[in-house]
Design a protein that fits this description.
- The protein has about 450 residues and is an all-alpha fold.
- The protein has 19 helices and no strands.
- Helices cover about 70% and strands about 0% of the residues.
- Helix 9 packs antiparallel against helix 10.
- The longest helix is centred in the C-terminal third of the chain and has 35 residues.
Length: about 450
């Protein structure tokens, strides 16, 4: 085990950055688009689609997007843009001020949580329609990130002070881990995986860039998080779509003997059913190739950039101030899921996005995939170089980068416009917080 750990940690010396935005996007792209087709080829899972011609066309488009994402990332466009750019994120934090900024952001996040819970917007499985239709709903969604920003400030302060052997790290250690525990406890009853995964990922990203790069520890935490959260999310969600209770779902999925205590099945069969359920839960959540296949099959005409129009209104007044603001084309993910025949007829709660690949295809077809994925690869490299490399790993750079990393990687499954509108808005908030955190200079 120690030999394997040393081997993984030595990979770092080759210059590979596990949480580099480009590397992470490429790995995630491979996971969400290739894992299911490869499993089909090996006979592990059922066919992606009955029509083999469409199947091969899907693989071809996915591969073209993959190639141009890599080409865009390793192009030198970023160096041309950043050649004469200055970076304002290098200033050091004032940790005495950081404590007060953390407290303010954390208290605001608790207020947002209370609004969600009492307003009926806590879980997307059981939401109050009046809360969803309210113009303030999008604002609450943006302010949800205050909790994660508080978590980032806490862990960034903790790891930075610990690295410098500053005794104040002990106070921040208590604050950081306490905040993480609160976030996980708050997120678990929602039956949603992402609110639980995001705090864990933020912890890993901050630790990676500020404190130490440990491959084995990172991979182990990710593995056990997936092992627990994916089946938990499936068991928790299923009763929302059926008349079964949670107990019946677990009985049908893993085996009656686990609940009833009857010794009719062997331990081996129990492990088999449990393992099979974990694998199916993982495939069901992570696979986006089926969504892209639905886009290819049911979108015969292109939108010519229509789904990107929301970007034009990013700097305009928010919807609760501008009542006649044109609606987003990308709001109703449930209708979209039914349109591409991904959701069952009785599922009116799950929201589906076209994936970044599907969105480029919906707008411009194959040409959109080629130029769009090249552009995104170059953009990912630009963000990484500016926030991490140019800042020499400043705390503010890591703070902004970790939020953008989550938004971009998670957003690869969604519509492009709302993801990047959200990125622009949250970046403005983060820059304001940066100026509040830094030391005053004469």
């Amino acid at each position: 085990m120690k030999t394997f750990s040393k081997f993984l940690n030595k990979i770092n010396f080759s210059g590979f950055d596990f949480f580099s935005l480009g590397n992470s996007a490429i790995l995630y792209y491979f996971l969400i688009f290739y894992l299911k087709p490869i499993s089909e080829f090996l006979g592990i899972s059922e066919d992606l689609i009955d029509n083999k011609f469409v199947h091969y066309k899907i693989i071809f488009y996915i591969t073209i997007g993959f190639i141009f994402l890599i080409i865009g990332y390793f192009s030198q466009i970023h160096s041309i843009i950043l050649r004469k750019s200055s970076n304002f994120l290098k200033q050091k934090w004032d940790f005495n001020k950081a404590l007060w900024i953390f407290a303010g952001v954390f208290i605001l996040s608790l207020i947002v949580k209370a609004i969600r819970i009492f307003g009926g917007g806590y879980s997307h499985l059981y939401q109050n329609p009046l809360f969803i239709k309210n113009h303030f709903y999008n604002l609450v969604g943006l302010l949800d990130w205050l909790a994660y920003i508080a978590l980032i400030i806490a862990f960034a302060s903790y790891f930075s002070l610990r690295k410098d052997n500053d005794e104040r790290y002990k106070i921040w250690r208590f604050i950081a881990w306490g905040t993480l525990i609160i976030e996980i406890i708050y997120a678990l009853p929602s039956c949603s995986r992402m609110p639980v995964i995001i705090p864990i990922l933020l912890y890993l990203i901050i630790r990676w860039h500020i404190f130490e790069k440990k491959y084995l520890k990172t991979v182990t935490i990710l593995f056990f998080s997936i092992l627990f959260l994916f089946p938990f999310g499936s068991i928790c969600r299923l009763p929302a779509y059926t008349d079964l209770t949670h107990k019946q779902v677990i009985q049908l999925t893993i085996g009656n003997n686990i609940i009833s205590g009857e010794n009719k099945q062997t331990i081996t069969s129990t492990i088999y059913y449990a393992g099979n359920f974990v694998i199916k839960s993982f495939f069901l959540r992570i696979d986006q190739s089926a969504i892209f296949s639905g886009v290819i099959k049911y979108y015969q005409s292109f939108s010519h950039g229509a789904t990107f129009r929301e970007l034009l209104f990013v700097f305009g007044p928010p919807r609760f101030l501008w009542n006649n603001k044109p609606p987003s084309m990308n709001v109703d993910g449930n209708s979209f899921g039914h349109k591409i025949h991904i959701l069952s007829d009785n599922d009116f709660k799950t929201s589906v996005g076209p994936t970044v690949l599907g969105d480029w295809y919906i707008n411009f077809g194959l040409v959109g995939i080629i130029f769009g994925m090249f552009f995104m690869g170059a953009l990912f490299r630009l963000i990484y170089e500016y926030l991490i490399k140019m800042t020499e790993v400043s705390l503010s750079g890591v703070m902004i980068y970790s939020v953008l990393w989550i938004q971009i990687i998670k957003g690869m499954e969604d519509w492009i416009a709302p993801v990047y509108v959200g990125i622009i808005r949250i970046t403005v908030i983060l820059i304001i917080i940066h100026f509040l955190l830094i030391k005053k200079t004469k």
